[in-house]
Amino acid sequence: MAKPYLEPRTQAWSFRLRIRGEDIYRTGFKSEALARKALLELTQCLKAPGRPALAGPWKTTLAQALLDYACERLPSLKSGEQEARRINRFLRHANTPLLALQPVTPNACDARSNESQSVYWRVACVPPDPERRIPNGLHKHRQAQQQNSAASELLRAQLANSKVADITSHTIQQLIDAVVSEGASASTVRLEHAILRQFFNYARDTWHWKFEVGNPATGRKLPTVDNARDRVLTNKEWHRLCEALKATRNPYVPLALGLLLESAMRCSEALVRIAWKDFDESQCLLHLRAAKAGKRSVPLSPGAMVVMRQLWHHARAVGPVSPDSPVFNLSYEALKAAWQRACERADVHGVRLHDLRHTSATRFALELHGNMPALKVITGHKTDSQLLRYVNINAGDVSRLLHRRPLDHDDAPAGLRVIRAEQVWTLPNAPAPELDDLPSNVIALASRQRR
């Protein structure tokens, strides 16, 4: 059995251990008792039930392990493409193959009826490109990026070429601090940290890799994310945007924006997930087979139905339409660029594309009088707390309701049609409702002037 010994040169206690073909060396202990305790804990950890998969953490570098992790894990992640880009930043420093992902068509996912988990990507390993092609006009920008991120890239190289068992929480914290000092946003820092944290959890639970001090990526000091949005587009701003969108050459852009506003869907759900077979015109529903939170059906408002019919007529005019044909022939990048150009032409500031979902949720909250179950069906949120992040009713709205002041149509959330009390339609020969006779939980948007 291995025993601790005193290093003559450093006067530190050390030990060497060979177990299951792995040679392990540890040093730097202040006393023989501490070295013996560490030796015993490490021996028990490595002899625990469950044989480590692959070569184990003592013989595998982080880059090699991340490559194996990506090939096993990324096909079933909807965010696999973004995860692959973050993993490739480590792989480039180790001269290993890089990850290249190709999307799997929805038909291929549906055909796998014998498997419970869908596959969204095909993962391939491609040789590293020694000279990455930089688009014209971006050379100075890329050069500035490389100079700004030199410290973090040096730490990524150190981590990528280290054995997984030798990675410490201190090194990971150094990488986090370096990325923060380079001016990266809090969400960017947390996403890169999440890659390492999820990898160590996967290696422990799936590959049975044992780590002396647990997951070194947990318990790190991370910046706080403050990404709450409360920007709601008004009817007046939406009207100006509609005028600006008339200059857009792509006919799908205004229709996609209109559908997002009228349905509260996410951009990925509308642009990527839906085909014509998912549109149920008789029930006014859109069936999403692979939404962010799983399968769900989106109830379509009258305005959304108008948009879907316009899309159908356009698709028929372009060419033959099959049930598997996508509803939109439009990428997210193209839609985002067109949205930014339209906002500039319409002089509308501070509005992001995702704010259409906030605007739609707020509009339906007012139309449905805060009916939370119905709102969660529309937006697809599972909990009230998630939904309330998108319903952006401010103090001015509450003050208006308390004092029964009318809601101005131009200032209302985009898509909300303000119907005043004197404009409410009644059944033929039915008496007009008196405002004083309204139920206690109903507040008229405007009071009728009495003579």
Automatic annotation (TrEMBL):
Domain of life: Bacteria
Transmembrane segments: none
GO BP, sorted A to Z: DNA integration; DNA recombination
Domain Tyr recombinase: 228-404
Family annotation (InterPro entries): DNA_brk_join_enz, Integrase-like_cat_sf, Integrase_catalytic, Integrase_recombinase_N, Tyrosine_recombinase_XerCD
Gene Ontology MF annotations: DNA binding
Pfam families: Phage_integrase
Keyword annotations of the record: DNA integration, DNA recombination, DNA-binding
Signal peptide range in chain numbering: none
PANTHER family the UniProt entry points to: INTEGRASE_RECOMBINASE PROTEIN MJ0367-RELATED, PHAGE INTEGRASE-RELATED
Recorded family membership: Belongs to the 'phage' integrase family.
UniProt protein name: Site-specific integrase
